Description:
Elements: E1 8-17, H1 23-34, E2 37-42, E3 47-53, H2 55-68, E4 75-84, E5 92-94, H3 114-121, H4 164-171, E6 192-196, E7 202-203, H5 206-215, E8 220-223, E9 228-232, H6 237-247, E10 256-258, H7 261-265, H8 272-278, E11 285-289, E12 303-307, H9 312-321, E13 323-328, E14 350-354, E15 366-370, E16 373-378, E17 387-389, E18 400-402, E19 412-415, E20 418-421, H10 431-447, E21 454-458, H11 464-470, E22 476-479, H12 481-492, E23 501-511, E24 517-526, E25 529-536, E26 539-540, H13 551-563, H14 571-574, H15 578-590, E27 596-597, H16 600-610, H17 623-631, E28 643-646, E29 653-656, H18 658-669, H19 674-700, E30 704-708, H20 715-727, E31 731-733, H21 745-759
Parallel strand pairs: 2-5, 8-14, 10-12, 11-15, 18-21, 21-22, 23-30, 25-29, 30-31
Antiparallel strand pairs: 1-3, 1-4, 2-3, 6-7, 6-14, 8-9, 9-13, 10-13, 11-12, 15-16, 17-20, 18-19, 19-20, 23-24, 24-25, 26-27, 28-29
Helix pairs in contact: 1-2, 5-9, 12-21, 13-15, 13-16, 13-18, 16-17, 18-19, 19-20
Amino acid sequence: MKKTDGPKAARFKVFGVVQGVGFRPFVYRLAHALGLTGWVRNSGYGVEIHVEGPPATVDHVFPERLTEDLPPLARIESLDSVPAGVLGFRDFRIKKTGRGSSFVFISPDIATCPDCLAEIMTPGGRRFGYPFTNCTNCGPRYTIVKDLPYDRPNTTMAGFKMCPECRREYEDPLDRRHHAQPIACPICGPQLLLKETVSGRMIPGGIKEAASLIKSGKILAVKGLGGFHLICDPFNRRAVERLRKLKRRQRKPLALMARDITGIAGFAEISPAEQEFLVSARAPIVLLKKKKDIPLIAPNLNEMGFMLPYTPLHHLLLRETGLIVATSSNSKDAPIMKDEDEEPGKLADFLLTHNRPIAMRADDSVLKVVSGERLFLRRARGYVPYPQRVPPELGSGRMILALGAELKDTISIHKGGYVITSQFLGDLDDYRNFAYFRETLHHLSRLFDLKPEAVVTDMHPGFVTTRFADGLGIPHLKIQHHYAHALAVMLEHGHIPRKKVLAAVLDGYGYGTDGGAWGGEFLLADFEGFKRFARFRPVHLPGLDKAAVEPWRMALSYLADAFGPDIPKLECLEKVDERKRRAVMEMIKTGFNTLLTSSCGRLFDGVSFLTGLAPEKMEFEAEAAMRLEAACAGEDGEAYTFEIQPGQNGIGYEVSFRPAIKSLVEDIHKNVPSTVMAGKFHRTIGRAVTEVALAAKKELNVDCVILSGGCFLNKVLLEDAQSRLADEGFKVLRPVEYSPNDESISVGQIAWALSRINKSGRRISIRS
Length: 768
């Protein structure tokens, strides 16, 4: 008779998003189902598992099931196993957290799951109507974590002692709330309160009364996951006008939250891909094409931003209201407010708040869908802090800190072959956002036990991030802005080019290696370096920073470039004070208070004003360009003419839009509709990108094109350029996990630092 093999033991180390997502209960149930004994526990690295049982089960069945049957929020990055001694365990249990170096991925905040939603909507249950219901499959994560490992004492739930019933659920491995750190119920969990902001008077009635106040035209500040929302009735014109006045935001779009998809469908067109993002556990704001406009919500644009409720509190409030304005509780240019002492009540009539502290503020994520894939305008709640694996060719054991640029900033850290990128932090030229930047840096450093050996920033000497890095006392690397955009896309896609790619980086501004104002760049790039293959022909930036907020200045600049001093008379310019126009023309003539820029963003601004779409002064960044995009009619048709000319100073080519501007002026004089002109202009830029790519293909056999920079937030432009390039046989890469705007700069900075370390034999002693 053949001798039967005895039991075998193995020790597994699991690395990834495996804490706070129901992973240990999953392992417990799996081990029991397979007849295995041993234990599972959290560690500073991830999760450790010891199993004993039949060799085939231990070696094959258990690890296969472990990776294939994961809980919905879990994500395994690596699974390592080593043989272990058989210790004779009689059962399988969940042990207390072990010690170890701290590098654990934490789940983003996740929208309420169907099971919890059913509980809060079902009369008779102990969590019926309770606005802080959650389980291991949903609820707050990143915004309540103060330290790792992810255990209740390390969260803002530490001060809430569990009642016996919650304790029973928490300790039962077969319950879906087993070790759900934010577990709560009406007896032992956070409590809601409603109060008047001026008097501080408590208002009875809770959510129903809050809904009644909204319907009566009041503005409420409602405490959510990562901060307060300002909420009002979108159909009450007076309420929306008051909200805009309080926020000093007269035209910038406001986000809407709807009870369900049906509530959105009456006002916007929804594709299957867009619906998938709306109902996902990440619950972002999704920009949708208007079907029926709601006045004052997104004036002069053809899209509105909608999201669905993502906390029990939102679900309960929306059950009473149906559709609300839900915009961030921040005054102009400041970060979202997370605490009552930041006085969100100054922007609202009433405060609907609670006593669960927010550890880390985070705004709502915003995206649109382009060619079936997401395009982030703002990456934050629901997506942060998911890790990005670094291509093995760049991998390094070094801890790197990247501080981004200055506008639309993020922080990225590198540790153990992964990049963690913060939520959107805003523009750091505002002191409040810079305080948010420091707050986030401290939070990330504590969570991931970061002790950086080098810091990377933009090369702009005046950026606050560059100056801050100088004071850290560690090696400081600097990288050109547009090159960082390109590297971010290569790192995200794991693209290690055998030959240089062409990166079309189109944005508003980036400090160039020559000290110039770049912004319409075509870079031949890889991880070793870059060269400018082409650029948009530079024109004057009259008034410098003023030209970025007053698009008529750029309209004059492009007219002067095309026509010289005798610019044609146009109705749009007659509305601008004549003295201002003369002053700008003098700047262009003399070069005083101006510099040359290749900016694509400023080209969009100028054309938007010439077509009569842009205001004399923009309220928010890209307002002029967004109006031009919104005006586009039809996907096919003519484009304006442009010229690709030999470049100077080592730049291969310049793309001149002089012919396009002249033809645009002819169309204006012919009273061609602005919708037609907008469409022709977008196709002109798409054609220009393609023609430059074809020149690079002909001369250097380039076959891959990267599209990045803030101008590629423009759906019309991105789709046109992608389509044209694909038709010419190019491989096209663009950001999907990150935004093409400056939020991705810190990711590219990490790639640059890792490349430099590998190139220099892991020695960092440079300040470059």
